[in-house]
Design a protein that fits this description.
Its EC number is 1.6.5.-, 1.7.1.17. With 212 residues, this protein is of the alpha/beta class. The chain has six helices and seven strands, in the order βαβααβαβββαβα. The strands form two sheets. A five-stranded parallel beta sheet has the order 2-1-3-6-7, sandwiched between helices.
Length: 212
């Protein structure tokens, strides 16, 4: 049985979000094709994802300097322990499905914060004499990204820093099986055309779900 983290980074619902609409159809098709797998939904707008603030940085520095966990302040303990739980959950999973819009050419801040929590030396990668080495080989990723214009190709492609950023981070972790579904161009089309773009992406997502 595989464990899938279904990671969504949009504050609205599938009726209002193109990315969530496609993600919902994907995960339902995946459930149907893989009834024995465990799917864990992480709605990043509802999860407690601590920022790398002064409490976190000071707490980590104290631990590196030899202090025990009990010697941290209450705020440091709470945030450091939560970050540890988040990255451990991530490492334990077998597959990852990220669902997000592209805002200002980038992933939403909550997804960047989550990515920070999973980028921990000794957990998802390590430093060696030959340079950094990813520790999550053999895992799989799908990223469903929606954007108002077309960024996966064409003249705006150099501005795309959502999927390109996330995929590079995940490759740094050692993950090589990374796939994307782009729901794009919906803001520059008529409502009818935008609906067609979404339906095409949903059909693609259902096909990917059968083999993911």
């Amino acid at each position: 049985m595989a464990t899938v983290l279904y990671i969504t980074a949009h504050p609205l619902d599938p009726q209002s979000s193109y990315s969530l609409a496609v993600g919902k159809e994907f995960i339902e098709a995946y459930h149907e094709a893989n009834p024995g797998d465990k799917v864990v939904h992480l709605d990043l707008y509802k999860e407690n994802i601590p920022q790398f603030d002064a409490d976190v940085l000071r707490g980590w520095e104290k631990l590196r300097s030899g202090s025990s966990f009990d010697q941290l302040t209450d705020a440091e303990k709470s945030k450091v322990a939560r970050l540890e739980a988040v990255v451990d959950q991530f490492v334990a999973a077998d597959k990852y499905v990220y669902v997000s819009p592209m805002w200002n050419f980038m992933i939403p801040p909550v997804l960047k914060a989550y990515t920070d929590t999973t980028s921990i030396p000794g957990k998802t990668f390590r430093y060696t004499e030959n340079g950094p080495e990813g520790l999550l080989t053999g895992k799989k990723v799908l990223h469903i990204q929606a954007s108002g214009s077309v960024y996966s190709e064409g003249p705006l492609a150099p501005l795309e820093m959502g999927y390109s950023y996330l995929s590079k981070v995940l490759q740094f972790y050692g993950i090589q099986s990374i796939e994307a579904i782009f729901v794009e161009g919906t803001a520059i089309k008529s409502q009818e055309q935008a609906s067609a773009i979404k339906e095409k992406a949903i059909a693609h997502a259902k096909e990917v779900a059968k083999r993911f």
